[in-house]
Amino acid sequence: MNYEEHVNLAVTAARRAGAFLRARFHEVHLVDEETAHDIKLRLDKETQSLIVGILSARFPAYSVLGEEGEVKGCSADMPEWVIDPIDGTVNYFYGIPIFCVSIALRVGSKIVLGCVYDPMQDECFTVCEGQRPSLNGKEISVSARSRMAEAVVFIGHGTHDGSGATGIARFAHVSAQVKKIRILGSAALTLCYIAAGRFDAYIENRINLWDFAAARAILEAAGGCFEYTPTSADALSGSVIAWNGKLPVHTALQLP
Questions:
Q1: Any residues with CB less than 8 A from the CB of 211 and at least 6 apart, and which?
Q2: Where do the H-state alpha helices sit in 59-186?
Q3: Helical axes 42-58 vs 4-23, angle rounded to 10°
Q4: Beta bridge mates, 82
Q5: CA–CA–CA angle 32, 36, 42 (5° rounding)
Q6: Which of the chain's ends, N or C, has fewer CB atoms near its CB within 10 Å?
């Protein structure tokens, strides 16, 4: 099946949502939920509703799974939109302009398209099944870096990813091997940065499907590798190792 119409619709929805978020970036935001290391805004729900409205107007039979819950269920054999309305909500709330809108389409267990839009940089990463990934229409690919000493990586550091003391030790161990550590606060953008050759690896102990669905498709189409280990049978959250396919990340992760 050709999903060109679907990816164009996803881009439209992501850009509309991005404009909505950009216009409200400097406002005071209402907090719906807050935990020790995360936050949910009223704006998360409003943005998701905006996206769902656009997607469902064209494909009303499709189901929708979003960060704010399964807002629209349907038959298991129908395609499903997977949405993160604001990936990087804490950044957004604190006025840090690093966040994005993420939209994927899943058919069965396969992601057939991905769209990740950064409204502050006006950067739109997209991929459609059978095609090369692009950034604002220009093809992208992972870096050629093969030595950890050359690499820029994101690595979960144990404070809120469930890895505890082991995660902190792993962070210190890998940090000593690489060029730089960079933590953006947005999983989707981090994965897209690997796809575009800006970053080289991403290691995280706890991440949700809606955080990575679209970006995973973009990364793998760009030549990168993505390993996901679900923490539960529903496969909605788990640990991730993603990289450019060239770095010896598994060796680098082995603690002495």
A1: 67, 84, 87, 102, 187, 188
A2: 89-93, 164-175
A3: 150
A4: 65, 104
A5: 15
A6: C
For residues 154, 159, 165 and 166, what is the CA-based torsion angle, rounded to 10 degrees?
Answer: -30
Q: What is the DSSP letter of 150?
A: G
Residue of 19, 196, 6 lying closest to 115 (CA atoms): 6
Helices of type H across 65-116: 89-93
| DSSP-based three-state secondary structure for 177 | coil
Confidence (pTM): 0.92
Q: In this structure, which long-range contacts are made by residues 224-229, counting pairs with CB atoms below 8 Å and at least 24 apart in sequence?
A: 224/142, 224/194, 224/195, 226/191
* Distance, CA of 10 to CA of 101 (rounded, Å): 10
Q: Give, for 50, the enclosing helix (H) or strand (E).
A: helix 42-58
Are 85 and 64 spatial neighbours (Cβ–Cβ below 8 Å)?
no
- The pLDDT assigned to 69 comes to 62
* Residue found by looking up tokens 């805004």 in the block: 41
Q: Name the percent of the chain lying above pLDDT 70.
A: 89
The CA distance from 114 to 227, in Å, is 17
Query: Residue 123 has which token pair?
Result: 């950067």
- Read off the pLDDT of each residue in 108-120 and give the average, rounded to a whole number: 96
